[in-house]
Amino acid sequence: MSTSTTVPSLLYSEDEGYLRDAVRALLAGRTPLETVLRRTDEADAFTADAQQAWRGLVDELGVVGLAVPEELGGAGASWREVAVVMEELGRAVADVPYLTSAVAATSLAVQLGADALVCELVSGEAIGTIVTPYGAPLRALDAEVTYTDGKLSGTVRTVAGALEATVLLVPVGHQVLLVQRDQATVEPVLSFDMTRRISDVTFDQATAAVLADDTAEALSWTADIACALLASEQLGIAEATLEMTVEYLGQRRQFGRIIGSYQALKHRLADVWTEIAKARAVARYAADCAATGTDLPIAASVAASICGDAALLATEECVQLHGGIGFTWEHPAHLFLKRARADALAYGTPTWHRTRLGGLVDLVAR
Questions:
Q1: According to the CATH classification, is domain 217-360 in 1.20.140.10?
Q2: pLDDT tens-place string over residues 101-113
């Protein structure tokens, strides 16, 4: 792990601003909130509309391979740019497999030197996911599966992205295995966040190819990348819900007054704004650390611990301050709340990351 005393810029570059505008415009046209809300009632986890949005990200904007070298079909940019995309996906609560495929699976494939797989993921020919429980820190599987003589057996529960995936990356012991989707049974389970659904993945003597051996370091790096980029999604969620709440409080009247004029509500919004300001700083720092390879484990855990709580606060206040309508199924506020709640469990809870952070900076638990 490298360290540096250079302070990175937490501001957005002009190019990042253009990227944000392009992604926001595409998502506004392909995944407006009312469309995402409707799709949560559909049985298919990856509807035709959602697939169109995904193809837009892949083909029209080319943002699936932003952090991938150009020689592998990517854009040769960095994880800073990917973080901008993640912010916009959070603002739109978009139901596309960007986190699981374009971030986690692609990062792991790059680290393992699986160039052919990387090219397939970047081109959109394949959609991947890492088969591990979504509500736990990213780790190699042990008791869940067995791998013998090229055959994989066992069940991994609560996997994100498997319903959309065409290829499965399965970390077992010190190896990462590549399994085609048709070799596994993917059973949907009831998901709290219906915009990123989970499933149980079962292998029954499935044919598996070894992508690489001695993969602990690559898996650890990917876990930090996933946490760092998920923090940007949480930031986008928090910003969108604060804006939604401010707009509503500026229009809703009660007892002849705009309810946003009540000082008690202003204080609550100020608290949310303060938490978002902190979240933006640590999310941007984590994205820069991911791009430069500097201090990433510490930055990822700091971002995960702060951004998870900020997104939860912002979405909870959004629901409550919208009053009765905020609690209805027809209003999109619950989409953000559920995504924030699920994100706070993904790849380690804020509490888990704070505990991990103590070890990384040599703090002694008392």
A1: yes
A2: 999 999 999 999 9
